[in-house]
């Protein structure tokens, strides 16, 4: 018997050796596959952040995508899985800032280029760790085509598309309210904020003859109007009038305006309007031509327009302003108030709306392109309910702020005029004076929102604007990613690709659910419930982890990562190993020649097995990987091991030979079907029964055991 089979299966000894063998074969590259006439099948890997290690969600994503690519490769497709890594802009800079804090340093006291160079070195080091972990998961991706979001060609073409969009009137520079993180000193898009329920106080303040209700009395110094609903009889007589409002630092003259957006049932039905510090107030201000007065600076402190409160942080200022208003007899009531508050998704700092110049993408026409593509069936969603979510976000799209005030990212290639607040793309760095007012220009120091480059990932990775790969492999076939990216990343890839290439970036979107802890809770370092997939691999093997993640995992549904499930699949791997040992031993005992000699088989048993092949192939074609894996598990354990092998032990003579020949045919075809799920042990067994020069990864997917 083979020496390897004489020992228990050892994933730790096997997996690294097998992966190196695959790499040496060159078959991860579709150009090297034996079948030269195969049709292309392409998946672009959602690039993991290059700032750290993989988490359980990455393990699931890598597993599902590898299942897809291995299946298509065995079906004869020129299957390409293009790997990548994401510089992850804001997120990576935050990770590095934490490192700086531990070292007693601050990014605000560093030269931008020094900070950039340090983060680059940090990222490239971690990128190597991340890529080794991707390999450890068995990912059969084409490393010769690997891309990084800061590769020179990616940077160049991202900037080129920005210029093209500007020339087409789809990018503009404007002053609008942005989500500002006072801790990290950058603007954030809506998808980079989270909403929490906050317990605040609703203050009722005398504003001349009216009473307004507000949770932010400290912004009163930036008020430019009081708004009421024009249908509210309580305040109709004041509409159009100017009222005198007393404050702790003097009098204000405010106009009362009527606006249908004012909720008559909130507070007193009268609202103070502060356009510079509230997005809704800004919209009302624009409608009524109100000025915007900024009274809170970028650090979250009151500025010199607030008199004695200058320099106070927001909460401290609120306390002092309320105390002073109370002393003046201007606070009529206070009541507890629960409401939703946006916070920075990384540090939980309450977002402070600010009016600053930023670059924006006009979304109306781009969103409509995406809506039309989905309505016409050019993109399908698995599961289909995410189609509605996608369309909701596109039907309610707002202009996209793509400027970030951070060092780490792709520079915005533009010049800015501080005199007229305009900006111009300048790829060649030739502009020196403002075309509008002839004033000197300065270089834009902002970087692109990381989603601006990753939104172009499908076509940039394939060599946009012109390459052989782009012509042959684009649009790609499937985008597999987490369900949480249905509104962050998926729409951006769709409308950016439609704009730049005129085609959808992929034909199918497959969304997996989140991987939670054993109790169904979201994993978080602060909770101490993070499960490291690499530790599970070290204990149970990669194949066991992959099967444990896939079985029972329906698309779009969150799952709990339970160690018991992974351990059960380690037992299954051992069972498969023992099945192989039994068949090989029996072949040697019975002195059975190779199958090519035409030995008799159990024809009826193989016809039944053929039905399983048909079922599993149908599941694979329809992306029901969780069902295919479960069927293989149950067949091999409960039918083959428990029934067929046990029955064969009692047979003698020709019947024994027929039984073992049949079992070997079933085993070989089962190994092929199981390979996408458990690539390491199946490849190892294949080399044992077929020879070291045979690679299971490129064997043909079975159609019939009777062929």
SSE blueprint:
Elements (H helix, E strand, L loop, with lengths): L10 H15 L14 E5 L11 H19 L3 E5 L1 E2 L3 H14 L9 H25 L10 E2 L3 H16 L3 E11 L4 E3 L4 E15 L2 E5 L10 E4 L13 E6 L2 E9 L11 E4 L5 H9 L26 H14 L3 E14 L7 E10 L2 H12 L4 E3 L2 H11 L4 E2 L1 E2 L9 E4 L4 E4 L16 E2 L3 E2 L1 H5 L2 H4 L7 H6 L2 E7 L7 H12 L4 E7 L2 E2 L16 H8 L1 H9 L8 E2 L2 H28 L12 H19 L3 H24 L4 H22 L4 H12 L17
Parallel strand pairs: 1-2, 3-4, 9-11, 15-23, 22-23, 24-25
Antiparallel strand pairs: 5-6, 5-14, 7-8, 7-13, 9-12, 10-11, 14-16, 17-21, 18-19, 18-20
Helix pairs in contact: 1-20, 8-9, 8-13, 14-15, 15-16, 16-18, 16-19, 17-18, 17-19, 18-19, 19-20
Describe the overall structure.
It is a single chain. The protein is of the alpha/beta class and 707 residues long. The chain folds into 3 domains: 11-161 and 451-540, Rossmann fold (3-Layer(aba) Sandwich); 187-352, Valyl/Leucyl/Isoleucyl-tRNA synthetase, editing domain (Isoleucyl-tRNA Synthetase, domain 2), CATH 3.90.740.10; 560-698, Orthogonal Bundle (Isoleucyl-tRNA Synthetase, Domain 1). Helix content is 40%, strand content 19%. It is built from 20 helices and 25 strands. A 4-stranded antiparallel β-sheet has the order 6-5-14-16. It has a 4-stranded mixed β-sheet with strand order 10-11-9-12, covered by helices on one side. Strands 8-7-13 form a 3-stranded antiparallel β-sheet, with helices on one face. A hairpin with a 2-residue loop joins β7 and β8. α8 crosses α13. The longest helix is centred in the C-terminal third of the chain and has 28 residues, at 563-590. The model has no long low-confidence stretch (mean pLDDT 94).
